[in-house]
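thought: fold this chain, then report.
action: predict
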Amino acid sequence: MQEWLERAKADVLFEASSLNPLTGQPATEHLMAALEHGAHAITANKGPIVHAYRELSALAKAKGRAFLAESTVMDGVPIFSLFPLGLPAAEIRAFSGVLNSTTNIVLTEVEKGRSFDEAIHRAQSLGVAETDPSQDLDGWDSAVKVAAICNVIMNLPVRIEQVQRTGIRELSEEKIRSVRSAGMRYKLVCRADRRGDGVDCRVGPELLLASDPMAGLEGSSSAIRFDLDVFGLSLVEHNPGVEATGYGLLADFIRAVHH
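observation:
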């Protein structure tokens, strides 16, 4: 990587390798190499945010370069860049959200009568689910996003193993359909609540009333609610495609070159 950077004389590195939730590699090494080289480092990979956010941020500051990761959660929605500039002096006490598109699509398709396997194939055909959707179905993707938000926005160091994690495989097709007919829906919900100097984090399927804004999410849509010390704030992303992640990378590029 370092040799390539030297030959390319790169000013910016876009890092978009596959997520490794347990180590954050090789993405972290790529970003470190870029910053050491003197390039801005922009990533769509959540792993480095969980495993090396403080180290990468410190290196970026020392090198006078930007380390940005807006695309890692909710694509191009400005979650990380909202704090602290948009909300100075506001304290986040908790957040909750539906942050995984694959499980949202799978649960919706099962409600319509499809089997789990058929629903997964549907999510894959839409380009949302990976060939191996385990990280989504078992809650790993959501857990990493929870840890990333805690690390960056709440300034609370959270390791992936601190996030209580349950996926959607334990739900039966019959249960998903029966609660829907009763006016309720299952969603894979992410939650984090500040507890003194720490935080309680969890991911798991929750039964929501139809009146809950998160229950109304369809397709690849996602949402997050921040409970601040001054007010509550919700953000909803409606059916994003791959271009939304691309926009997040572009937005970070613009921020970096104006750094």
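thought: worth noting. The domain at 2-76+243-257 is CATH 3.40.50.720 (Rossmann fold).
final: tokens above.
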